[in-house]
Amino acid sequence: MIRTVMLVSLVLGTAACAMAVYDPEPVTPQQWQERQDRIARETAERDRLCAITRPEDPRHDQLCNSLPKDRP
Predict the structure, then answer these.
(1) Mean pLDDT across 53-72
(2) CA-to-CA distance for 11 and 31, rounded, in angstroms?
(3) Which of 36, 51, 70, 71 stands 20 to 30 A from 17 (CA)?
């Protein structure tokens, strides 16, 4: 009984690690453009949140540390 439980937990544990957790690469030009647009929107939103967050806010480091140093 214990062997069965151990075997099942081992199988379920390795199956969870084996699943792909990434976005597939775009194939068509439209998919590439949508990807680029999504990245631009995410970057603009992060820039906006960084600009309006006070330096003493704990989220400020999280939002602004991912920005390149040459940006304001």
Answers:
(1) 74
(2) 35
(3) 36
Q: pLDDT tens digits, residue range 5-33?
A: 677 777 666 656 666 667 788 899 999 99
Return d(Cα 46, Cα 50) in angstroms, integer. 6
DSSP-derived letter for residue 72 is -
SS3 3: helix
**Sole residue written with tokens 């775009």:** 26
Q: Judge whether 14 and 24 are in contact, CB under 8 Å.
A: no
User: C-alpha dihedral over 59, 63, 68, 72, to 10 degrees?
Assistant: -80
- The 3 state secondary structure assigned to 4-70 is HHHHHHHHHHHHHHHCCCCCCCCCCHHHHHHHHHHHHHHHHHHHHHHHHCCCCCHHHHHHHCCCCCC
